[in-house]
Fold:
Amino acid sequence: MATRSLEPIFIEIPDNISVEAVPDNFVSYVLKHQEALPPVTWKNWYSELDWQHVFVLFVPLTFGLIGAWHTPLRLKTGILLLVYTRLTGFGITAGYHRLWAHRTYKATRTLEYILAVLGAGTLQGPITWWARGHRAHHRYTDTDLDPYDARKGLFYSHMGWLIFRPRRKPGPADISDLRSNPVVKWQHKYYLLIAFITIIAVPTCVAGYGWKDWQGGFVWTGLIRLVIVQHSTFCVNSLAHWLGDQPYDDKHTPKDSTLTALITLGEGYHNFHHQFPMDYRNGYKWYQYDPTKWFLWSCEKVGLATHLNTFSENEIKKGELTVQLRRLLQKQEVLTWPAEKSDLPVITWEDYQCQAKSRALICIGGYVHDVSDFFDKHPGGAYLLEKHNGKDATSAFFGGIYDHGSAAHNLLAMKRVGILLGGAPHGSEEQFVPPSQHLRVSRYDELSL
Structure:
């Protein structure tokens, strides 16, 4: 009887992969068993184009620019352009992203239909396709299974992943909840019709019937707006992984940037978002620019949204502290520190006094210090060092003559050459540990388990 292999079989259709078939080392397993297409080069780029996405990205851009050249932007049309850009942008940020991709809140059927219609007005695909790719992006960030892997460059993560056929299938992501959602299924069924109405019919008719600017409505609020919203969204995949800082995690590429937030309707606090994707906020601090956060808060107040998820403030602060400590450790590792106690010789008081006859030694806080090279540098004058040579200057150092500051404590610790047998019974932690080491970050191998 043949034994069944325990190694999971790779499933070609990632969306249909079963839980049992997912190995713990899934990314490396897929990279090993799934053959990728040859890389795109200057010789084969034309044959590797995804013409559907090329059409979606470049036809509206081309006709929009040509039309804009011949169509003056009227004030009312310009206002409509700004308002409609914001509304359809919410279809992506509040709908596709925070509602359907991450389930950060619950929406009423009314709000779901509104966001589904507005999202179709950006021509970024049905909800299922968009959310499936975005969930894969979060699960496989900065790996070859990430659909818009930022490691492959700014252009690739912005739009190259759309223009060219993917070199391999993106990692699997569960979207069963979306496939059973009636609003999502409705949008998927009528996607092209909804997209035509929201992209062409609505802006053209509003401007045309409203103030007789049919051409301006079609060109500016239809085509130009579409291009603006598309590239605003693409900046979340590209610019938000390239520009800014990383206050919550520096393991992956996502970054926080106010500039990116301004461009993307608040989606620019991407480092926070990747660490706490279930939070309905992207800029979680009250003053951070995140209009989608304010929009959802308003929807909750009028009863259109409920269960707005927020992550624990304690865990958010802990994430910040983790990064700060890691960076402090990096700074700490390049500094020179005092000799460890175990590396210093233990000497008696008599031996200390004997050695002090041939070199400048001063005892402070139970440690013996060689101050031979500090006579000409001591701010208080060389005579004070000469006065305490071979003596205990603890009281003098800690306020008897002058209450030295942190810099003096740290410098003194670097001059330790021995430990006095018996130490200083009256000594305190302040006398034994220099200020620079009070909060010194410990490496894992320094911790006792």
In short: The first strand starts at residue 106 and ends at 107. The first helix runs from residue 26 to 33.
